[in-house]
Design brief:
Length: about 350
């Protein structure tokens, strides 16, 4: 039978939850307790959230980048800024999580197919505008930051050494759906991400995604978030690199589970883990169900093809080993059962 190296996994987990700048670890106080065997520590700590004060430092790093850009741009169009990433949904498993600063041309917008703009914009070429936006952004940030990576197809990245945080600057146009045009509610507003090598626009709805993931988190008392953190942790620690299985896939997987099956209360960690394992089983053996799974915003079907199947199978294997090991420990120790209620 396959086994998990919990010693190595716990070290990995501790490293992800250590803030080098503050020289602080955000591991739970119960982590060092002798009441918890290694597999139970790994299960519980994997599901626990990153404290908001550390996420705030990530948001601060993006805010600093935004201010540098606002103060130094020399462009003929206005810009708008928004943020996205797992920090915004509190599903991140690392203190130093990457964070996206959406940098959006704010002088004009594109509408969904079939919806004409009230006034077509013709004063400049959007493709040229977004290239100029990227060029000026790169130049400004290279004058301020030592670490600037400009190799991304849709973004550039900077590393803020003082806050020990990485920020991805993602260049976009506004994309207006029919619902946004009718309501002016930003929940329905989208962006066109821009692939620079191909000059291709890719529609995305990050604001609906963030809202829906957070709503599910609140409605499950953090259960959906805990389940997602567990899957992300298992993927990060997998002996085999799971290249086809992204955070977006995992988020969609957890989002497809009914809220009542993910409700969290102290001691319910195993139940949530089993629920997720059952869902993964359906994805593996019911192609019609898997292909119908929607992203949180309902716009994409992330598992419509079979690319992710091998990775889902491997991840489920590790999850099931963790569940089996943990159930054995819990079933034989009333002390452990009580201790888990206060982790």
């Amino acid at each position: 039978m396959a086994t998990l190296d919990y010693t190595t996994r716990l070290v990995n987990l501790q490293n992800r939850k250590f803030d080098q700048e503050l020289n602080e670890s955000i591991i739970s106080k119960s982590f060092s307790s002798k009441d918890f065997p290694a597999n139970i520590k790994y299960l519980l700590e994997s599901m626990s959230p990153i404290d908001q004060k550390y996420n705030d430092r990530t948001i601060e790093a993006a805010g600093r980048v935004q201010k540098h850009l606002q103060d130094n741009y020399k462009l003929h169009f206005n810009r708008a800024f928004r943020t996205q990433g797992s920090v915004k949904t509190r599903t991140n498993i690392k203190v130093h999580s990457d964070f996206d600063l959406l940098t959006i041309i704010d002088r004009y917008n594109f509408n969904a197919p079939g919806i004409p703009n009230e006034k077509d914009y013709t004063e400049s070429d959007p493709d040229e505008d977004i290239f100029v936006l990227r060029e000026q952004t790169t130049s400004i940030l290279k004058n301020i930051y030592t670490d600037v990576d400009e190799t991304g197809e849709k973004s550039i990245s900077v590393f803020n050494r003082s806050l020990n945080r990485k920020v991805d600057i993602v260049f976009c146009f506004w994309y207006h759906s029919e619902q946004y045009i009718e309501t002016r509610n930003e929940y329905y507003r989208g962006v066109y991400l821009y692939n620079f090598p191909s000059k291709r626009k890719i529609s995305d709805f990050p604001f609906a995604h963030i809202s829906l993931v957070n709503n599910k988190g609140e409605n499950t008392h953090d259960g959906s978030r805990r389940g997602l953190r567990l899957l992300k942790t298992l993927r990060a620690d997998s002996v085999t690199e799971l290249e086809k299985l992204s955070s977006f896939h995992l988020t969609s997987l957890v989002h497809s589970i009914p809220n009542e099956n993910l409700l969290y209360s102290p001691g319910s960690e195993i139940a949530i883990a089993k629920t997720i394992s059952d869902e993964m089983n359906k994805l593996l053996y019911d192609p019609r169900y898997r292909k119908g799974i929607k992203s949180p915003n309902g716009k994409e079907t992330p598992m419509a093809n079979d690319d992710t199947l091998p990775d889902i199978k491997l991840l489920k294997g590790d999850l099931d080993i963790l569940i089996e090991d943990s159930v054995k420990e819990i079933s034989t120790s009333s002390v452990l059962q009580r201790a888990m209620l206060n982790y």
